[in-house]
Amino acid sequence: MRSGPRGGDAIDAAVSERDAVGFVAVSRGSDPTSRYLTGREFDCDLAFVRVDGETHLRVPSTVEPPSLSVASVRVDDRPPGKAAAAVLAEHGAPEGTVLAPRTIPHDAALHLESAGYDLASTAAVEAARAVKDAAERDAIEAAQRAATRGVGRAAAILAAATGEEATDGDGGDGDSGREDDGGDGDDDRPALRWDGAPLSTERLRRQVNATLAAEGVDAAGATAVRAGTRGDGNEPVELRPGEPIVVAVGPRGPTGYRGALARTFVVDPDGGWERRAHVACDAARKVSLVEADPGDDAGFLGSELRAETAAFGFSMADEVTRDVGGGIGIAAREVPPLDGDRELVAGNVLRVRAAVTHPDHGRVELTDVLVVGEDGPRLLGDAPTGLDPSRW
After folding, report:
1. SS3 32
2. What positions does the domain Peptidase M24 occupy (predicted)?
3. What is the pLDDT of residues 354-377, one digit of tens each?
């Protein structure tokens, strides 16, 4: 069991280096930073104070104070900034510089300043979160295994789907009739059918989320199914043979850590664009296993992912995705981003994404999670990458 919170050593080092008297973080509602620092989720205002190597939490009386091995927890109904100032004064720091994340709420900052403290921002917690320890990596890998099973469920359904016309009066499974096709009305191909009813993006999404729930993870509102050129992945459309179908998930595990996985499937392909796009995305995916060693530049990795995708004849400006990923952990987007000049270090965990979009053909995407290890990078999970759902 840890003797202090995650990030505690980094906070103490920053406090010592800056000759500060302590560190304060204030969260409002569910917040990734407070979950990282405390190991649990709080749905309330919370004052986190680190002073003299010890951690103190102040929570309102509207919640039951938890028993935490990493912190002293007490009820305090004063505004979090005032509660934090009282903790600092109580533990021998009546004045001086206090470090805080740059996202500290304005009113909390004002309360600390009015109590006589000078605030200085620090990225110590952000930097600490960028390097995952073994338990964090295990949690992300568990979420990634669940993600693989969720996308695998989609693959199994698509492999079993047919392009046969519906019989009269056959609605099936609570889906009534043909859904809005998103505007591509000149395509008269029949919708894919599964289990006696038309198969839509929403129906497939629900099946994926049911599998994620059975795996013990939260879909976290991140599951999306996108069909060809129709719609933007939000409104339901019926799935058709021959179009690329992107299934993307970002489940959150019981401890808050997330996975990320996207695969593209085509049922009964009848064209070549999606195959070329898939080869490009798969080649970019493999680049991450070459350019993500400790000491490599995160921005260079991002540029190489884009360049490798574009090398297959796709426009860097119009077709290749700009979002090629970045850090992942308690939040879906963390440090390091895959741009700028940050150096990769062992313990970074990255969402790596390659995608191509064309207005006439649709979208192809492959997303995985990669760990930067001492011995080099490795992708988490063994999810197949092919377009054919029957080969999952």
Report:
1. helix
2. 232-373
3. 999 999 999 999 999 999 999 999
Q: Please report where in the chains the tokens 């000078």 appear, as a residue.
A: 118
Angstrom distance (rounded) from CA 265 to CA 274: 9
Q: Is the peptide bond before 294 cis (omega within 30 degrees of 0)?
A: no
CA 4/CA 333 separation, integer angstroms: 25
Neighbouring CB atoms inside 10 A of 30's CB total 12
Tokens 């992912």, residue located: 305
Rounded to whole angstroms, the Cα distance separating 361 from 380 reads: 30
Cα dihedral 171/176/181/185 (nearest 10): 70
pTM of the predicted model as reported, rounded to 2 decimal places? 0.91
Q: What is the pLDDT of residues 203-249, one digit of tens each?
A: 999 999 999 999 999 999 999 999 998 866 578 999 999 999 999 99
State the span(s) of the chain assigned CATH 3.40.350.10.
8-129
Give the pair of three-digit tokens for residue 230: 């129709």
Maximal CA-CA distance, the chain: 79
Cross-strand bridge partners of residue 378 = 371
CATH superfamily for domain 8-129: Creatinase/prolidase N-terminal domain (3.40.350.10)
- The CATH number for 134-391, chosen from 3.40.1550.10, 3.30.70.120, 3.90.230.10, 3.30.530.20, is 3.90.230.10
The residues of the chain that CATH labels 3.90.230.10 are 134-391
Burial class of residue 139, CB neighbours in 10 A (0-12, 13-18, 19+): buried
